[in-house]
Amino acid sequence: ELQEAVEEVLPDLERDGVRVFYLSSASPTPGVEALLPAIEAAPDEPLPARHRASVTASSKAMYIYTSGTTGLPKAAVITELKLMMVASLGRICGLRPDDVVYTTLPLYHSAGLLVGVGGCLEVGATCVLRAKFSASQFWADCRRYNVSVIQYVGELMRYLCNTPKRADDREHGVRMALGNGMRAEVWKEFLQRFGPVAVWEFYGATEGNAGFINYTG
C-alpha cells in the first residue's frame, strides 16, 4: 500500500543508516527487507536483558505520523512511558486476557497500534487484524473469530449502521467497543440495532499530553 512512498524516500533513509522492512514474506524493493521470515525464525526465549539495559521511560519507542493536530503533519515522538500509558487504556476500560480484540484500523496511527495491538500485549489478550475495513464482512468476522471487543472511529460505526439490516445483526459475542468520534445519533442507532455493547469513547492526540474517556457511557 505504501510501497511507492517508501521507495521515493529510500535513498535518503539508506544514507541516514535507517533499515526499512515490509511486514511480508518477500520484498519487491531492493534495499527493503522482508520481516516475516525473521519473525518466524526468531527463538521463543525472551531477549537478553542487555539489549534493553539503556532503555528508560523517556527513551524514544517509535514515531507515529500524525495529520497535524498542533500544526503541520509531523512524526510525533512516542516515548516508552507514553506507549505504556496509551496501551493501558484497554485495561482501564475493562479489557481482559481472555478477550479477542478486532481492529481494522491502520497500524500507522496510534489507535490501531498503541490502543489495539499495544492494549492486547499489555493484558495478554488476542488481537485479530484485518488488512482493510469491510462493512459487509465486519460481523461475519466477529462471529468467525469469536471477537469480544471491537475498535472503531466514528465513521466506521456509521458505515455499519448503513448496511442492510439482517436477522442475525445481534448474533455476535461483542461486549465492548473502544474508539472515538461517534456521533450521538449513530451511537443510539448502533446500540438499538446491534445490541447492548458497552461503548468506551475516548479522545486523545498522538502529540498531546492529555486524554479523556467517557467511562460513564
What's the short story on this structure?
The protein is of the alpha/beta class.
What does this structure look like?
The protein is globular and about 55 Å long. Strands 6-5-7-8-9-10 form a six-stranded mixed β-sheet. A two-stranded parallel ribbon has the order 1-2. The chain folds into two domains: 2-42, no CATH class; 81-207, 3-Layer(aba) Sandwich (Rossmann fold), CATH 3.40.50.980. It starts with a helix and ends with a strand. With 217 residues, the protein is α/β, with parallel strands linked by helices. The chain has eight helices and ten strands.
Features:
33% helix, lipid metabolism, AMP-binding_CS, long-chain fatty acid-CoA ligase activity, AMP-dep_synth/lig_dom, ANL_N_sf
